[in-house]
Amino acid sequence: MKENKTLTKAEMEIMNYLWDIGGEGGTVRDVLERYPAPPPAYTTTATFLKILTQKGFVATEKRKGEGKTYLFRPLISRDEYRKRVVEDVKDSFFGGSVKSLVSFFVQEEKLSETELKELLEMVSQGADRVR
User: Fold this and answer.
1) Is-contact 30 20, C-beta < 8 A?
2) Which of 12, 58, 63, 65 could bridge across to 7 with cysteines, CB 3.0–4.6 Å?
3) pLDDT recorded at residue 124
4) Cα dihedral 43→48→49→51 (10° resolution)
């Protein structure tokens, strides 16, 4: 997959459906079935899958014995993509500082006391693993 490629909102939606399908992937129709009503046009979805293939996020293969039907499967997992995006945000907006990133969310997200305690517990557990 080509580096430093990000997904548009529409591409991300399709990738989420492909990740949900799992296994060997799905067809355009499989993706369309996951959309809330009314789904986008078949051709629109097929075009986005083609773009995702060109960007290197999706692999395409012809489905055996079914004419022109193609299977599309993700070449990157949801977790891998999430890590890439968070790393990019950290580097681009917070100078590579995890502390600045976390501080931003603590201040901007108006976390509850319970959520803050849970975060502190996670940090404490992480620190215990490092020792």
Assistant:
1) no
2) 12
3) 86
4) 130
pLDDT digits (tens, 9 = 90+) for 102-113: 889 888 888 888
Tell me where in the chain the CATH 1.10.10.10 domain(s) lie: 9-76
Can you tell me the distance from the alpha carbon of 66 to that of 122, in angstroms, rounded to the nearest whole number?
A: 50
| Cβ count within 10 A of residue 42 | 12
- Reported as a single tens digit per residue, the pLDDT across 51-86 is 999 999 999 998 777 677 899 999 999 999 999 999
- Identify the architecture of domain 9-76 in CATH: Orthogonal Bundle (1.10)
Match 């055996």 to its residue by tokens: 64
Please list, residue by residue across 4-35, b when 16 or more beta carbons sit within 10 angstroms of its beta carbon and e when fewer do: eeebeeebebbbebbeebeeebbbbeebbeee
